[in-house]
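P.,

For your records, the input lines for the assembly:
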Amino acid sequence: MTVLLAPETTADAATIIRDAASSGTKLRLAGGGTRLCPGADDEMPVLSVRALTGIVAYNPAEMVMTAKAGTPLAEVEAALEANGQMLPFEPMDHRPLLGTAGEPTIGGVFAANVSGPRRLVAGAARDSLLGVTFLNGVGEEVKAGGRVMKNVTGLDLVKLMAGSRGTLGLLSEVTFRVLPVPRAVETVVIAGLDDAHAAAAMATAMSLSVEVSGAAHLPFIVAGRFSLGAGHEGSATVLRIEGLPHSVPARAEKLVEALKSFGPVSRLGADESKVLWCEIRDALPYAANRDKALWRISVAPTAGHQLMGAMRLQAAADSFFDWQGGLIWLQMEASVEADFLRRAIGHLGGGHATLVRASSAQRYGVPAFEPPAPGVAALNARIVAKFDPSGVFVGGGNV
Amino acid sequence: MSGAIGFLEPRADVLARRKMIIDDLAELLPRDGLIAEPRRLVPYETDGFISYRRLPLAVALPRNTAEVAAVMKYCHRYGVPVVPRGAGTSLSGGAIPQEDAVVLCLSAMTRILELDYANRTATVEAGVTNLSISDAAGPAGYFYAPDPSSQLACTIGGNIGMNSGGAHCLKYGVTTNNLLGVKMVLVDGSVIDIGGKHLDSAGLDLLGLVCGSEGQLGIVTEATVRLIAKPEGARPVLFGFDTSEEAGACVADIIGSGIIPVAIEFMDKPAIEICEAFAHAGYPLDVGALLIVEVEGSDADMAAQLEAIVTIARRHGVKVVRESQSAMEAAAIWKGRKSAFGATGRIADYICMDGTVPLGQLPYVLKRTGEIVAHYGLRVANVFHAGDGNMHPLILYNANDPQDAANAEAAGMDILKLCVEAGGCLTGEHGVGIEKRDLMNHQYAKVDLDQQMAVRAAFDPGWLLNPSKVFPLEGRSNA
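Structure tokens returned:
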């Protein structure tokens, strides 16, 4: 049974970390625990920020919020929505995919740099993060960054903490930039394209001055499990347009005009769009069979379809593409094929693959995260040692 | 200038081996790849922060990553400090060398390696200038977004070193938000690749750490940056107000209303007069403060955004609203703004501050800045990126008068402290360099700076890379 430590003050959290460091105990850091890989070393005590909660400061006119790391994401999003604002990077909810329960926290979102479809044009979680307070591996409370958008004062430890997945320190407070919610949204859908033509269509869309804010391709095998509206058949290449109410239809029209040579084009309205892009964000079709291994792959946008072409020759796989083809969700029917996959990524110009979900048998001998090149691995290890010299924090448990 | 900012003592052992080091480095570089004659070192003795000058031991001009690596490996082996340099446009002294240092100048590495429009990336050598990326990608309909005022001269390597911003980063972000990958030479001469054409990093975000590290962590030799499709149109509009406070309050209201223009630039009366005299941009001279607000998109889009912005400006008593009627007028409006520093330099010596403050604090900080400068008996011109609170007070003084110079420097320090006290930071885009190094303790607690220095030590434990910069000389550690 996992021991869960959820201190209510940063001072208590620091004491727990210092005690662990002096006694040689290890800790796994967590927020709400919704992104913890099930089965990943249940014996390890978990130090969670879930009891460090509350929005500390929010000035909508400055588009900046500060919150304790354990503040539920739902609370943050509700406060933003009440002021017509949002997190620009559309963080996904991992619970359906992983079958986890509990409340995602804002600290967890930044610790795992969780970003959704709008990441293609609006940046990742790390791009919105302006400042952090964290406890390092000796229990010191360290501040980095601030609450202004432009800040180059000293080394950018803020970016380093974003996505560090509990290997460098326990985030206790985060300050981040928010944006106004677009008042209108539409989706342009091209039906029936194969992966290669879809890649070409998405590249064309991104080359136009219509400000596409989401570009995904849902191949035939998976398209039926997305809400594409009655009557849709075959694969769907979907492009989202957001912004001012009068301008969205005009830009969608322009996009339709530019893309109609690729295949039959239709449009989805605001309500249907919102549902569809949530499904894409959460990779929802792959929540149905949690016994199947699931990869999340990041490559150059035009390399995505080439990689899947190579994978399908090797193994039975089901996949779809976000980020103009550069983000691939890949569900494996049987084996995980890690070596083949990672070699193919290397051959196609680089990127990385994360094994988001797998049984313990499938995980055996397969690193969940892409092993870095030796020079980078050594550098990473030196950096980790500068935050956590006695190795209190055990990473790798969060996707 | 009073010359109050100190440098590290040159390493005596390095100075003693000067001739050997020069001979050895010359072997590693092509003919003309090493400069050691004192007369030819003079152009490298300072950068855009011209009040401080030091002659380096030598200047290396490598042509490729392998030569950079060879120089680094040698300097690491013999404990020779290295100061990286792009075009030398730093406004904070980031590229000013010292007597025991080799300047590693990447200005000869100017190849654009690849323009990949389907993936919207450009891969370039570090010495490529900022503007030449947009020039190269322009015919295909793309541009590189960060646009520092020095973009004609400054290099992408320098932009990465300083995490440079510009007028248009309100919408598109600064360098770190537009950087996808780098090739970097570490202090021991080893070469690593970080990132690539894919969007998010694997493992620790080393790319985010390296961007803005001011040459403290390694030498970036190549970069992959994001290209963006050019907007259909862009239109700057001038808004004139009676007072700076009204203009400042208007900025906060525009942002708060949910409209994000591409740029909101601010000029106070002295800045308007200086820029208009230089650029003849058609700025109104009977106002106390000016905003340049740029919107972009289709004609209909721009019209809708402008209508909303004008409504807000009227609430703040705007006196003059002037839309650019042609591409030439738009260019003139931006020319006036982007030449602000150069134009100021024609009428007086000046030092330029770079603090950022929360938007709500703009009116207060502007008022206090005026009071601080007046207290020292000097004048100030304010011209800056208001949409993101990044202020650039230009403190005017006479460099030939030592007391005037000391007063200007003291006023600048007071203004930066004011920015920190208002909830902001010392530098929004110019970097710490030597200029703001000794103020770092005002922004950060010891534990915060120690953590930064510990991370630095993971890259360069011997303090060889740009060693007199960023961190106060007192209290340094190799933790």
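Two observations worth noting. The mean pLDDT of chain A is 94. Chain A touches chain B through 87 residues (CB under 8 Å).

Regards
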